[in-house]
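hiii so um. not sure if this is the right channel but i have a protein structure encoded as tokens and i wanna go backwards to a sequence. like what aa goes where. can anyone help
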């Protein structure tokens, strides 16, 4: 079973991710935690992929426009208190294992090494039915 684990991060008053105000050492510890988590998932054969995402200010919403020209607007949803900061795709035997990984990711260190306890949304990746040939 494949699951997407989506890391949601709180916005600062300016609307951006709070890591911009962290010390270099705190940021380095946070990133090293993520690398260790990914190595552990790789070693367990559960890692499919992971990426961090740019801050919400760089996000755009795109919809189909007239004549096939994309209609592009700024940012995700300005009224939201949190935004998608990154994600993992994991392949595991049970939903409970995906929840355990999400719990570990949620405890990533923040300033002073204190766990952030970020919300991690866990959703199963759907499979399309086979195509008849």
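sure thing!! here u go:
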């Amino acid at each position: 079973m494949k699951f997407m684990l989506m890391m949601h991060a709180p916005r600062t008053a300016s609307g951006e991710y709070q890591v911009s105000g962290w010390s270099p050492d705190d940021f380095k510890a946070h990133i090293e935690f993520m690398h260790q988590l990914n190595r552990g998932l790789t070693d367990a054969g559960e890692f499919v992929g992971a990426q961090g995402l740019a801050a919400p200010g760089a996000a755009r919403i795109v919809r189909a426009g007239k004549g096939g020209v994309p209609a592009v607007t700024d940012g995700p949803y300005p009224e939201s208190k949190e935004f998608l900061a990154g994600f993992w795709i994991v392949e595991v035997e049970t939903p409970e294992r995906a929840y355990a990984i999400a719990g570990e990711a949620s405890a990533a260190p923040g300033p002073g090494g204190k766990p952030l306890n970020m919300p991690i949304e866990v959703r199963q990746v759907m499979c399309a039915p086979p195509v008849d040939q």
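oh and The mean pLDDT is 87.
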